Amino acid sequence: MTARFTVTARVLAVLAAFSATNPRLTLTEISRRTGLPLTTTHRLVGELAAWGALERAGDGRYRIGLRLWEVGSLAPRSLGLRESAMPFLEDLYEVTRENVQLAVLDGTEVVYVERLSARSAVSVITRVGGRLPLHATGVGLVLLAHSPPELQERVLAGPLRRYTRKTICRPDELRRMLADVRRTGVAISDGQIELVSLSVAAPVRGPGGEVVAAVSVVVPAPETHPATNPLSYVPAVRAAARGISRALGHS
Amino acid sequence: MTARFTVTARVLAVLAAFSATNPRLTLTEISRRTGLPLTTTHRLVGELAAWGALERAGDGRYRIGLRLWEVGSLAPRSLGLRESAMPFLEDLYEVTRENVQLAVLDGTEVVYVERLSARSAVSVITRVGGRLPLHATGVGLVLLAHSPPELQERVLAGPLRRYTRKTICRPDELRRMLADVRRTGVAISDGQIELVSLSVAAPVRGPGGEVVAAVSVVVPAPETHPATNPLSYVPAVRAAARGISRALGHS
DNA sequence: GACGGCCCTTCCGCTGAGCGGAAGGATGGT
DNA sequence: ACCATCCTTCCGCTCAGCGGAAGGGCCGTC
């Protein structure tokens, strides 16, 4: 039988077999999910485990290992960014007592790099290291609004997935929203992922003024909490974004 | 020429070429650090970059990519643990206003999984994703004290690296400290890594009662700040450790 | 302009690292 | 005992991976 692809690609396929919904897998499950023969999987997994990229627990299942996370933590766009942003995220968390999030753009999705949550804050489905589409989240809208036109067109070309009845799914509506974000400098996403949540987000800029991340607070939506005034969060989110930008060398 | 080791091992060697002191590398530097011929390095790096494990910036240098961190964030012992611990870390941070850290054991070192720092807190050299030896840090002493005897003997066999004049470097002294940690349930490490810092650490337990992590506060050392009373932090650190343990299913 | 140092990028004949079917084993449930 | 599921080991075969060689780009120095 001919090999389907390179060893490197196979190794990476093994790593990509793990997900938030399938964080622990048997050898056979990894084989199935990757399409690699069991013996091949066995060889690769064995080596990855020896190195620490995968760890095998008492139940015989494999999970992503500490060593992989450790190397991954060197990524400037994740924990490197988080390091610079943390004081300002903490400040924002202090003054709002709500969910605070930091995210970056990757492909056509946002990747959440950090999150600080109060026990009393509205629950959010985001996970550090997790992804969501650009069009439906505060941080995603900020990142999309400031991205190259080609990317914007690509996203606008759809499909724009619906999460709730409030999710922006029409390209013309999204286009207007993006223009508004660029004009006002903040994005307000109300009930687009979950009806109970509203996020206020602002752009974080790098040394050359380019938008490199977005910071947001997620608060109860006015629909379920009439006392919520989204606009009251704008100054604090802006201040946090400016602080982080400064820490990143933006002048 | 005979290959020195497998493709998988080579891929992992490329990833391991990156470190906190060398987070960005040229292709030639990666080749040098791994000992792989330039052409081989070029092939592997190209594929890793295509996948997102490495990212190449405008300066032509490679750095660890977001995708690798993203997969790594699935590791139960890092961000998975952090997720459960975060509320309690935040509480500890609130009540102390000092550095708060969460760490796990790997090999003969601690790996820092999370850190919350106040701007006014004493500076610490630890980095999320970074490592330090077990014998010289509060969290390390906790993890070592509760580790299998073989590991303890291995560490006691040395070498025990010295960081300051206060670092415990004699095996008999360390053995006594470990017994003390087990007896009192907390570790106090005074000026062992930096003379200006003192840490108070306690064990975090998993469902079966096994120690799976350690939580600590790092405060100014009494030597430089005579007003510091380390014992005053013990109850709060203990409470945080208990809270995290409970969240992990320990009863 | 010439030269050297450094950092790539591409090519392609050769061969041994990687492949995976086959065989066998362990465990748990019925 | 049988079956399903999940491994673990073996080994002949072949093509994926190898890396020296060739070539190129960029920058600094003389």
Automatic annotation (TrEMBL), chains A, B:
GO terms for biological process: glycerol metabolic process; negative regulation of DNA-templated transcription. SUPFAM superfamilies: GAF domain-like, Winged helix' DNA-binding domain. Keywords: DNA-binding, Glycerol metabolism, Transcription, Transcription regulation. Residues 5-66 form the HTH iclR-type domain. InterPro entries: GAF-like_dom_sf, HTH_MetabolicPath_Reg, Tscrpt_reg_IclR_C, Tscrpt_reg_IclR_N, WH-like_DNA-bd_sf, WH_DNA-bd_sf. It comes from the Bacteria. Coiled coil: none annotated. It holds the Pfam family HTH_IclR. Residues 67-250 form the IclR-ED domain. GO terms for molecular function: DNA binding; DNA-binding transcription factor activity. PANTHER family: HELIX-TURN-HELIX TRANSCRIPTIONAL REGULATOR, ICLR FAMILY, HTH-TYPE TRANSCRIPTIONAL REPRESSOR ALLR. May be an activator protein for the gylABX operon. This is Glycerol operon regulatory protein. It comes from Pseudonocardia asaccharolytica DSM 44247 = NBRC 16224.
